[in-house]
Amino acid sequence: MLRAQCLRHPLEECGPVNRSAKQLSQTAVAHPNIALIKYWGKADAELNVPAVPSISITLDALATTTSVSFDARLETDSISLNGLELDADSKQAQRIRDCLDQLRVLAATTCCARVQSHNDFPTGAGLASSASGFAALVVAAAAALELELSAADASRLARAASASAARSLYGGFAELPAGQPGEDVAAKAIAGVEHWPLEVVIAICAEGPKTTGSTQGMLDSAATSPFYSAWIDTATADADAARAAIMGRDFPALAAVAESSCLKMHAVMHTTRPALIYWNAATVATLERIRSLQQAGMDVFFTMDAGPQVKAVCGPGHGAEVQAALATVPGVHRVLHSGLGGPARTCDPCS
Ligand code: DP6
Fold first, then answer.
1. pTM value surpassing 0.90
2. 235 in a domain, yes or no?
3. Residue identifier of the C-alpha nearest atom 3 of ligand 1
4. How many helices (H) and strands (E) does the chain have?
5. Rounded distance from Cα 38 to ligand 1 centre (Å)
6. Cα 334 to chain center, whole Å?
7. Range of the structural domain that residue 79 is part of
8. How open is the CA angle 12-18-19, to the nearest 5 degrees?
């Protein structure tokens, strides 16, 4: 991997580019995405290439806003998340520096950066904060460096940092294909928000951060779960079925394949050693409530990620009713309601 690690510049210029500090700052906003067909497993751990295709929807009600300023006077990158400075030795800070290094190589600069990122939703709790975080980081840093990246190029860079982030470059429905070792895959748009304005209700079943992160969890699954190979073998057929259901706006077909992909991923998690059990009692109670809604004829299905929160995907116009039903489930702290969101983008001012 190419590196352009940051340095303090005696002449206070950012490498070969000589622009004012003002021009080297940009802010971007990106939304988390929720996978309907799940990514769990890497074909290449070093380059972060997914072993399975995944399909997602981007949410408009949750957002990460990130400002990046490249500044020749800085001696190191300085990174704050939700107002708190990250420990420079933490894995999270290293991942962000690695991502900035990729952009510095493209811009032929070694300038250090100040990164300030804010999530308007719980961080690290299975709500895809790393997806929106890296999508916003890549878009803000590329714009600050005046790099003209295509969405696919930005998606590739975001994927290298966190594969689910590749999908947050796009609004509506997006797909990240599986890759081979060494392959530099990018996500692509499948359909825009207007194609099928699904709604999402998120039942917050615990507020704290998760115990095992996805990156380590999926490496452990590949090494120890006896179900891992079956998961890999069936993923392409699931993605094909989901893509066809989305294009045909076939809610029952999408519900069936999305719930199956989610439960297969959790079966792999549960059979990983040590076991990855992200559910709590409120998670299970919420699944039961969604089953009752389905039996009553409601267009709704569930999905869950590496955390206890349950995401209920609803047909257009059904979100408010599902929100009211999930708000009374014992153990559910609060319920969020979202439509589908747009792509990651620069913003000034950002509301
Ligand atoms: C369960 O994208 O966080 O949310 O590439 O290692 O950063 P890394 O993993 P990450 O994994 C997300 C896993 C998931 C399912 C999904 O979003 O597809």
1. yes
2. yes
3. 214
4. 8, 16
5. 8
6. 21
7. 11-346
8. 95
Asked if residue 91 is part of any domain, the answer here is yes
Check residue 210 and report its DSSP letter.
P
Answer whether residue 157 is part of any domain. yes
d(Cα 312, Cα 322) in Å, to the nearest integer?
8
Among the ranges given (23-32, 181-190, 311-320, 338-347), the one the predictor scored with the smallest mean pLDDT: 23-32
- Among protein residues, the one with the nearest Cα to ligand 1's atom 7 is 162
Instruction: Give the count of domains, the chain.
Output: 1
Confidence category of residue 350, pLDDT binned at 50, 70, 90: confident
CB 28 within 8 A of CB 140: yes
Tell me, in angstroms, the distance from the centre of ligand 1 to residue 247's CA: 24
Atom of ligand 1 at shortest range from CA of 218:
6
Give me ligand 1 centre to Cα 217, in Å: 10
Which sign, positive or negative, has the C-alpha torsion 283, 286, 292, 294?
negative
Q: With contact defined as beta carbons under 8 Å apart, do 214 and 127 qualify?
A: no
Per-residue pLDDT tens over the stretch 44-98: 999 999 999 999 999 999 999 999 999 999 999 999 999 999 999 999 999 999 9
Which region among 43-57, 156-170, 337-351 has the lowest average model confidence (pLDDT)? Answer: 337-351
Instruction: Please check the confidence at residue 219 and state whether its pLDDT lies above 90.
Output: yes
pLDDT at 22 over 50: no
Ligand 1 centre to CA of 25 (Å) is 29
Instruction: Locate 60 and state its tokens.
Output: 């408009």
The 10s digit of each residue's pLDDT in 234-292 is 999 999 999 999 999 999 999 999 999 999 999 999 999 999 999 999 999 999 999 99
Residue owning tokens 């699944």:
287
Token pair belonging to 221: 């699954």
Distance CA 336, CA 234 (A): 32
Question: Which residues' Cβ are closer than 6 Å to ligand 1?
Answer: 35, 38-40, 48, 54, 130, 162-164, 214-215, 305-306
The one-letter amino acid code at 143 reads: A
Average pLDDT score over the chain = 94
35 in a domain, yes or no?
Answer: yes
Domain of 132: which CATH number?
Answer: 3.30.230.10
CA nearest ligand 1 atom 4, residue? 305
